[in-house]
# Entry
Amino acid sequence: MARPSDWIYLALGVLTSGCSSKAPAPGSSAAAASAASGGGGAYSGAIAETGDSGAIAPNGGDGSTSTGGASAGDGDYTVGPTYTTSPDLVSKDLPAGKTFSFVMNSTSSKIFQGMDTTLLPANQHSFTRNVQVYIPAKYKDGTAAPFMVIQDGPGQIANIQIALDNLTQGADPTRRLPAFIAIAVQNGGGDGVGSERGLEYDTVSDRYAQFVETEVLPAVLADANILAAYPNLILATDPDGRGAVGCSSGAAAAFTMGWFHPEWFRRIVTYSGTFVAQQNPAAPEAAIYPLGAWDYHSVLDLVGNTTPAKPLRVFINANEMDNGAGTGDANHHDWLLANQRMATALASQNYDYRFVEGLGATHCDEVVQDLTMADTLLWVWQGYPLND
# Structure
């Protein structure tokens, strides 16, 4: 299927960028041209095709997640180098939902007990993790709730909570979100090779997805405080109503959840994704994926070489001054290059994807998230029924 060309953001009257089939390399003439096309300030999130002044509603499809590409707002964009917070991420004093939290102990886990042999000795111990749940005011008890799992909890839950309050109840019918539940899961601790967080997030396998599906979600449904407020709570089993969000290694984990189990998770949001070689070389999975998440887009190029395309809808971001930007292929630790290549791989298989590069921004830069998160959620939930 042919992809749409020349999509543009309407950035409060300023064109933010053009769209191409590939993300421009940093410092290239294409990147310079993209920056020159606008690159400023907050944007409304309305997307129009060149020559068409009408905004395209973010929702309104049949509820399916297409893998054919060409949905509204797909493609490659730049934002910045100046940033403002999206109006949809500022409280409008609309009715708020309810927040809950509970603790999970690794001693009760069948998957991540804290004693994996690939962990550094100092990291081999039991631990607890907090889980925070936000149920928006528009959720109706007894209905199957769509949801998103946020890594590195609390992670992005503050922005997502405000977006849910504003965009499930707002007056603008073209900017509406389904009333999905946000579930923020704390990592197991530490960072990098030999840490519990690295084991959970940087390993290219289905272990973390299994953990979420078989341990976290049942724990949400079993929590006494949640049950007291919502005795008939149901979490959606339809994979089109399930997504994942993350930043850095948490972003890689979010993508890996969908990659290995698209029958569970399909709507994926990643900021400064660690699609680099950060998997523990001692992990059994290294025998299959020697360069870890780098193999998603380079060398093995799992995304570009796997057919048919998986039924995923993927937002990816990296920033101009992201970790390792400009270091190139040599050490497989250039976050910007990795995410640009992810965009290229996704485009080659006609995935519904959106890639946003933040000019002048750094790793997991909050100014980029404050600008884009509301529009990212509207885009990633495109096509899902609102059920008002």
